[in-house]
Amino acid sequence: MAEEGNACSDGTATARLNGSPRSVADGGRAAEDIDIMDWLGGSRSARATEQVIGLGTYGKTLTVLTCPSVQDETYQEDDGDDEEDLVKRWTPGFRR
Questions:
Q1: Which domain holds residue 44?
Q2: What phi and psi values does residue 91 have, to the nearest 5 degrees?
């Protein structure tokens, strides 16, 4: 887990890419399998994937953590929403 004031944990692909400003500027990429606890702490170990890309002249990186074994309960209750219902819920409405 990251120490206070650090943007991310030491030893992560993100920390390594951030340590090379040239790689960040060049849009460098990295991906590796990790334990989600490396990023989030806690007591539950779960395999995850860390993907990072340098954002060029912004001097920043974008990191995506994917952990298929930890699912949002919202998706577990998927009753097969039909397309019509999805369109209705996502179509902007205006009051008259």
A1: 1-69
A2: -90, 125
- On whether residue 5 sits in a domain, the answer given is yes
- The reply to whether 76 falls in a domain is no
Tens-level pLDDT at each residue, the chain (96 residues): 544 445 677 889 999 999 999 999 999 999 999 998 888 888 888 999 999 999 999 999 999 999 888 765 455 555 555 788 878 777 777 766
Whether the pTM exceeds 0.90: the reply is no
3-state secondary structure of 71: coil
* SS3 state at 72: coil
Task: Report d(CA 85, CA 75) in Å as an integer.
Answer: 16
